[in-house]
Design a protein that fits this description.
Elements: E1 24-25, E2 32-33, E3 56-66, E4 69-83, E5 89-100, E6 111-115, H1 124-127, E7 134-136, E8 150-152, E9 162-167, E10 175-176, H2 189-206, E11 214-219, H3 221-236, E12 243-247, H4 258-263, H5 266-275, H6 281-284, H7 288-309, H8 315-329, H9 333-338, H10 345-351, E13 359-360, E14 368-369, H11 383-403, H12 428-438, E15 443-449, H13 457-467, E16 477-482, H14 492-509
Parallel strand pairs: 6-9, 6-11, 11-12, 12-15, 15-16
Antiparallel strand pairs: 1-3, 2-3, 3-4, 4-5, 5-9, 5-10, 7-8, 13-14
Helix pairs in contact: 2-3, 3-12, 5-7, 7-8
Length: 519
């Protein structure tokens, strides 16, 4: 599964249905702003323009009920500059920063720094569907409902940590200051990590958070980003972290071509087939997590060696392996033989429910699509992505403008152009390993949805095994799986559970008073 830069890969998501509810906010008179963004209703807000402001701030005050308790907080939206080597501002990055406002000493208060992926995707997905104080107005499984909007998030991690959501250049409201600034300053694995590390330094300094325990969380391509940032912040900004959370991780530059790449897809195929009730009765009768270990063992012990042998495998043995792969995947033995046991995911999304007239989604295979023709090697469109944009886009535009009072006529880019993206030099998995090896305080949590076909759960496990091949860091690594897809938090049950896992991870990663960072 070679990682491909597809802007739609890294989005993120939503929550449960019910009556739309507006989060609590103090009266508008308590909203404060800097001189650069003036909030006034008549005749026209000064912020209503399309030019990027490299520095701007709007502050509002709110409260949210988490776990039955009221949590007051301050929300700061605005932009901070990206500096070049000569100290010149070359871009303004948009961010939303939530601080619990009844905390007296922020030195011990954790700070979570949040990124989404793409790499051309805004931070909207985890912002208004996962860890933040509001979530989308969607049904319990993550599907859009009307009226569009948002409501309180009773599972937000804001009770235990402050959070800043960051939009890289060309996403959200973030832009370069002019078209003359070369895209190579921002658009590439190494360039992205370098300028964002510098920006984080500016943010932490401006907001006096150097003493705070710090955590990075990234989703999809955001996992590549934060894995690289863990080492870049440590080695070049001298900023040491307590934890990194990888949500639906990419391959992190860890090699897995050929037979390994082909074989590792099978457990995801099995999970999706189980969800759509396409497996034989004996497998279907088992619970998902009771069935998958059998498939995982078969994948490691038999499929990888079989594909590695190629023509040496022999026709009978090939047929035997294909039959078993068919049993676990819900598609025919002939398909596996025709593809030499290497069935592409794109074909699987088309084939699994072909006889029922549906395709399955890429990022979340619970979602079904309808194609123009039953024939073909892949779906006409990504069913899940269309569904998500349906509910996310109205909500973020309403929320930032009406609730957080950030006024601008810039388009909020759910996806922005980052072409061409330089994917060379991706050693981010090893960057993360090196950061953990150097920093005894640094912990890792990986979260995966079983029905994610873009960054599948078994590849995430494989990355963890290879990231720490020596097995010396396992006591600081953990993995959690969820019965949903790429954005596991869109499903109500998983929203609650996944946030609780992050909450407990943060608490566990905080050292005891007086504990030294040593092995």
């Amino acid at each position: 599964m070679k990682f491909k830069i597809i802007l739609s890969v890294c989005l993120l998501s939503s929550y449960f249905a019910g009556a739309q509810q507006t989060p609590k906010r103090t009266p508008a008179k308590e909203t404060t702003t800097t001189s650069q963004v003036t909030i006034k209703e008549e005749p026209k807000p000064v912020g209503n323009e399309r030019a990027i402001k490299v520095e701007s701030t709007v502050v509002t005050n709110h409260s949210v009920t988490i776990g039955g308790k009221s949590v007051p907080y301050k929300a700061t939206t605005g932009t901070l500059p990206v500096w070049d080597e000569d100290g010149k501002a070359i871009a303004g990055l948009f961010y939303t920063y939530y601080e619990r406002s009844d905390v007296q000493n922020r030195d011990k208060r954790p700070l979570v720094i949040s990124f989404n992926g793409g790499p051309g995707s805004a931070s909207v997905w985890m912002h208004i569907a996962y860890t933040g104080p509001v979530v989308l107005n969607i049904d319990d499984e993550g599907y859009p409902v009307q009226p569009y909007g948002y409501k309180e998030n009773p599972y937000s991690i804001l009770d235990v940590a402050d959070i800043v959501y960051i939009d890289p250049v060309n996403t959200g409201y973030s832009r370069a200051v002019s078209k003359d600034i070369p895209g190579s300053k921002f658009f590439g694995v190494r360039a992205d990590i370098k300028y964002l590390a510098e920006w984080i330094n500016t943010f932490v300094t401006r907001n006096n958070r150097w003493a705070s325990p710090k955590f990075l969380i990234g989703e999809s391509y955001g996992t590549t980003r934060v894995s690289g940032l863990a080492l870049e912040l440590q080695n070049n900004q001298w900023m040491y972290l307590n934890g990194v959370v990888l949500v639906s991780p990419t391959e992190l530059g860890i090699e897995r071509g050929g037979p390994v790449e082909a074989a590792l897809r099978l457990p995801y195929f099995a999970a999706t087939a189980w969800y759509h009730k396409a497996l034989p009765a004996d497998l279907q009768s088992k619970d998902l997590t009771a069935m998958l270990p059998e498939v995982e063992q078969f994948t490691i012990n038999e499929v990888i060696p079989a594909i590695s042998q190629g023509a040496m495998l022999g026709a009978e043995k090939k047929k035997s392996i294909a039959a078993k792969m068919a049993r676990y995947s819900g598609i025919s033995e002939k398909v596996f033989i025709d593809y030499n046991l290497d069935v592409p995911t794109n074909f699987f999304w088309k084939e699994l429910l072909r006889d029922k007239g549906f395709t399955v989604g890429r990022l979340d295979s619970r979602y079904k699509g309808v194609d123009k023709m039953a024939a073909g090697d892949g779906p006409d469109y990504n069913a899940e992505l269309t569904s998500w944009l349906h509910s996310f886009t109205p909500a973020i535009n309403m929320y930032l403008r009406n609730e957080l009072n950030y006024k601008t006529d810039l388009k909020y880019n759910m996806f922005g152009s980052v072409y061409p993206w330089d994917n060379s030099g991706d050693k981010t998995g090893d960057n993360l390993r090196q950061a953990m090896a150097q920093n005894p305080f640094l912990h890792l949590l990986v979260q995966s949805g079983y029905y994610d076909g873009a960054c599948d759960y078994f590849n995430a496990k494989y990355s963890m095994w290879q990231l720490d091949a020596a097995g010396k860091l396992q006591d600081r690594m953990s993995w959690e799986g969820y019965r949903s897809g790429h954005m596991m938090y869109l499903r109500k049950d998983d929203l609650k559970t996944s946030n609780e896992h992050v909450r407990e991870f943060i608490k566990k990663a905080l050292p005891k008073a007086g504990e030294a960072a040593k092995f």
